[in-house]
Design a protein that fits this description.
The chain is of the alpha/beta class. The chain has two domains: 15-52 and 64-80 and 154-219, Rossmann fold (3-Layer(aba) Sandwich), CATH 3.40.50; 85-151, ABC transporter ATPase like fold (Up-down Bundle), CATH 1.20.1580.10. Helix content is 34%, strand content 20%. It is built from seven helices and ten strands. The chain has helices spanning 35-42, 65-75, 91-96, 107-120, 136-148, 166-183, 194-198; strands at 2-4, 7-9, 24-28, 54-55, 58-59, 76-80, 154-158, 186-191, 202-207, 210-216. The longest helix is centred in the C-terminal third of the chain and has 18 residues, at 166-183. The radius of gyration is 18 Å and the shape is globular. The two termini are 32 Å apart. The mean pLDDT is 90.
Length: 219
């Protein structure tokens, strides 16, 4: 719920939804439909005004800000349209950033984990390149590697192909779906692109804060 002038408007209205472990899901809808609000709630960035959100079958609304931050860092990986890399850091250093807030491990282990994630996304040979010297597709691969480095069970991707050309976007989309298949990672993508959504086994369409349709998914 948010306030606009003298009115209170519901970004999401009476939404009931279950996403199962290891699913690959695309959430679609026009601008202002509520899909980004849904992702923010799933990622513990926003708290619903009413109702219950359960993560791994456990309610999370009562958790403190620090507890939510710990879950976000360890259990959820985020990928954004704008990459949000630090431009003067190398690809490796950008991927290492989430480990600064994880339980302490040796620097050698951190580097090994980050290198492995860059290898998974096909960027190991660019690991020492600064982010501002990488292409858009390479930057998004670094962002995906950064999301993977804490071995999260869920990746939330907000318009992950939106800033990329068609071919590069398809490559990134394939990479996300391969991660879902090969590494048993739940992938939830927010997109306005129906071609992107069509590649996902489960598609949820939101209209005016309500779930308009659900297609596919596990039985």
């Amino acid at each position: 719920m948010y306030t606009m002038g003298n009115q209170q408007l519901a970004a999401l209205d009476n939404v009931s939804l279950t996403i199962l472990k290891d699913e690959a899901v695309a959430i679609t809808g026009p601008s202002g439909s509520g899909k980004s609000t849904m992702m923010h709630i799933m990622g513990l960035l926003d708290k619903p005004t009413d109702g219950i959100y359960k993560l791994n079958e456990e309610p999370v609304s009562h958790l403190s800000a620090n507890e939510k931050a710990l879950i976000r860092n360890l259990a959820i990986g985020f990928v954004f349209q704008s990459f949000f890399l630090l431009p003067k850091l190398t690809a490796l250093d950008n991927v290492l950033l989430p480990l600064m807030y994880a339980p302490p491990i040796s620097k050698d282990k951190q580097i090994a984990m980050a290198t492995e994630c860059l290898d998974k996304v096909g960027l190991k040979k660019f690991m020492h390149n600064k982010a501002n010297n990488l292409s858009g597709g390479q930057k998004q691969r670094v962002a995906i590697a950064r999301a993977l480095v804490t071995n999260p069970k869920i990746i939330l991707a907000d318009e992950p192909t939106g800033a990329l050309d068609t071919k590069t976007g398809k490559d990134i989309l394939k990479l996300l779906l391969d991660l879902n298949k090969d590494h048993q990672c739940t992938i939830i993508t927010i997109t306005h692109d129906l071609d992107v959504a069509a590649a996902f086994p489960k598609q949820i369409h939101i209209q005016d804060g309500k779930i308009d349709s659900i297609r596919g998914g596990q039985s």
